[in-house]
Amino acid sequence: MGQIVVLDQNMVNMIAAGEVIERPASVVKELMENSIDAGATKIMVSIEDGGRKLISVADNGCGMDGEDLARAFEPHTTSKIKTSKDLLGISTLGFRGEALASIASVAQVKATSRAKGQDGANCIEIDCGSKGEISPASADYGTTIQIRDIFYKLPARRKFLRTANTEMGHIAEQFTRIALANNSLDLTLIHNGRELYRLSDKDNLHRRIAELSPIPSSGISENLIETESNEKGLHILALMGKPSISRTSKKFQYIFLNGRFIRDKFISHAINEAYRGLLEPNRFPIVFLFIRMPYEDYDVNVHPTKSEVRFYNANFVHSQILGCLREKLLGTDLHIPAKLPGTTGLPQSREGPAPGHRSQAIADAMAEFFKKHRPVQTQEQFSYKSKQHLVALHPPTGQIPENHTGPATTSALRATTDSAPTSAETSQPVPKIRSEERKFMQIHDSYIVVQTDDGFDIIDQHALHERIIYEDLCRRIQKSKLESQKLLIPESFEVTPSGADALKNNAELLEKLGIELVPFGPKTMAIQAFPTLLSKADPLDFVQDLIDLLDRKDVNLDGERLLDEVLNMAACKAAIKAGQRLTMSEIEQLLWDKENAESASRCPHGRPTTIKFSISDLEKQFKRT
Ligand code: ADP
Ligand code: MG
User: Fold this and answer.
1) Average pLDDT, the chain
2) Taking the model in full, what pTM does it have?
3) Dist. CA 595–CA 592, nearest whole Å
4) Which ligand is nearest to the CA of 96?
5) Any ligand 1 atom below 6 A from CB of 99
6) What ligand is nearest to the CA atom of residue 113?
7) What is the structure's pLDDT at 590?
8) pLDDT at residue 440, rounded to an integer
9) CA distance 600 to 610
10) Mean per-residue pLDDT for 598-611?
11) Closest CA to ligand 1's atom 2
12) Position 495 pLDDT exceeds 80
């Protein structure tokens, strides 16, 4: 006798429910999406006990007549597609026709609906798959669906529900995604009679983000950078959080495709790449990315909850997003404004100290300093003699030449300018850095304080120099290999067999870097030539660390990524250190290079190089205003 039987329809629905209806939040998502597909402009979601007791979604959409209402809860019933051709360009959020049937197979459902133009409403009740009769009811235009006691006949599933708070968290997240994608809808979320969100249909995107944001609304708006692009039918709108409001998880990266929240590896990768070097390790940007493209250019029918899609031209999508975001980030002043006590800055994130907590300490110290030494005239306090490590740069009469080379260089900074002719060599006047007088000083042999138009900056000398060298290295290595010089006496070192392998496998990279190694014995190698740009770094130390990096088993970096890591390391080793006293011209050189750097606000590891203080903040602090 055969063992195989055909499952009855309710079993089929329950199995489908296992895929689509994971928890109360999935019900909220499916019902809200149905309301949006029905053209609703107003949706009210009411929850009791984290969704265990009740999930109710009421809309003012097109509604259903009695016949449709009875049919909507049957499996594979939909009004959104008719033929297989329709699958090629789905413009609605739903199309699989299984959400209502799945939900009705695992809970008690009551649905009331009135279609436009109908005199009265109809109502139907379904209890875990057993359907009652359609009966007349009184209700406004639109649809209300109430789900009670989810999974009550499935103790195993019900057991997996978490506390009301946790389930409510998931519901709020689904609500947030839909609310972000639909800022012109009037949306309300209520839990146990308490209103959690009431969002107006007049919201613009910024306002909506501020209302739903985990960061208090005073902080997020001024920390979002907006950019837009439209190329070959691909429209991108991005609101990108500045690095200063980065988070410890990717949770605050919202990607929407034609109004649908999606997750996508390609797009996440593009976002990460766009922020490369602007964030510290293990920090993730806040990003709201809205993509519009023809429905025919991707497939949503690849995942039961439709949270993943397949792009037909994923490379194009990736490169457009990366280009759009990166260009905007690099063109934006990302310097961190100082947070003085009592002035309104960004509130600290809830996830512990913000990336700038070190800078906060400096800001506090500076505020303290200024309190103690209250200036009679702010300007004059800077006018020490150069002996005291403070000078004023007076603008020279000459203009900045087109291909300026910066002021004469001195030892500590040679790494950045070795093969560039100095101004002395080209006999050009020391170029003017700013049109007005600029004053600066080095403090604690580690930081440089510079007067700016509207206040002053404090620069971390190591972080800034690291960024400058890094950019220089990137530029040069893109053109050709790095220039190197032979060591007078080759430096030898011992190498493990796997280290030797790593070197052999990366011969091309070594060549590009201008590092020449020769075997010197069975387990010994010698460095014969080393890049000129890294003359500040110790060759032996550098090569050892390079071997460690290349030999790291845990990473599988592509060529470009690996090169980037190597250049990062090189820049760090070649840069001036904290605690190193600089001469006036070294500081001048650094400031000059800063002006010409592509992205001087962050070191290559994403730490800030500069904190900005504004006179207006100081004046507030000193109660001058
Ligand atoms: P799908 O959304 O994939 O079509 P569902 O099971 O979610 O499948 O819904 C089945 C059908 O019921 C929909 O195609 C739609 O015609 C109708 N429907 C569901 N919810 C609503 C609603 N809130 N307003 C009007 N019609 C609805
Ligand atoms: Mg649906």
Assistant:
1) 82
2) 0.70
3) 5
4) 1
5) yes
6) 1
7) 93
8) 92
9) 8
10) 87
11) 94
12) yes
CA of 185 to the centre of ligand 1 (A): 19
How far, in Å, CA of 202 to CA of 512, rounded? 57
Ligand 1 atom closest to Cα of residue 145: 23
Q: Which of 290, 286, 172, 283 is nearest to 219 (CA)?
A: 286
Is the beta carbon of 27 within 6 A of some atom in ligand 1?
Answer: no
**Tokens (6 digits) for 620:** 């507030």
Q: Given the CA of residue 62, which atom of ligand 1 is nearest to it?
A: 25
pLDDT of 214? 63
d(CA 191, CA 175): 12
Ligand 1 pocket residue status of 440, Cβ below 6 Å: no
Residue from 37, 62, 122, 126 whose mutation best tests the ligand 1 pocket (most atoms within 8 A of CB): 37
CA of 510 to the centre of ligand 1 (A): 61
At residue 390, the 3 state secondary structure works out as strand
Cα-to-centroid distance, 72 and ligand 2 (Å): 10
Residue 423 clears pLDDT 50, i.e. is over it = no
Instruction: Look up residue 56 and give its two tokens.
Output: 């109710």
Which whole number is the average pLDDT over 343-365? Answer: 42
Ligand nearest to the CA of 72: 1
Is 90 exceeded by the pLDDT of residue 582? yes
Helix (H) or strand (E) holding 449, with range, is strand 447-452
Dist. CA 91 → ligand 1 center (Å): 14
For 265, residues 6+ apart whose C-beta sits below 8 A from its C-beta are none
pLDDT digits (tens, 9 = 90+) for 146-189: 999 999 988 888 988 999 989 999 999 999 999 999 999 999 99
Nearest to 121 by CA among 71, 76, 65, 160: 65
Neighbours of 7 (CB within 10 A): 10
Q: In terms of Cα–Cα distance, which of 585, 326, 593, 569 is closest to 470?
A: 569
Torsion angle in degrees (nearest 10) through CA of 153, 126, 144, 213:
20
What is the residue with the minimal CA distance to atom 21 of ligand 1?
A: 34
Residue type, 359: S
pLDDT of residue 544: 87
Per-residue DSSP letter, 284: B
Atom number, ligand 1, closest to the C-alpha of residue 95: 3
Atom 1 (ligand 1): residue with closest C-alpha?
97
What's the 3-state SS for 548-607? HHHHCCCCCCCHHHHHHHHHHHHHHHHCCCCCCCCCHHHHHHHHHHHHHCCCCCECCCCC
Output the CA 21–ligand 2 centroid distance in Å.
12
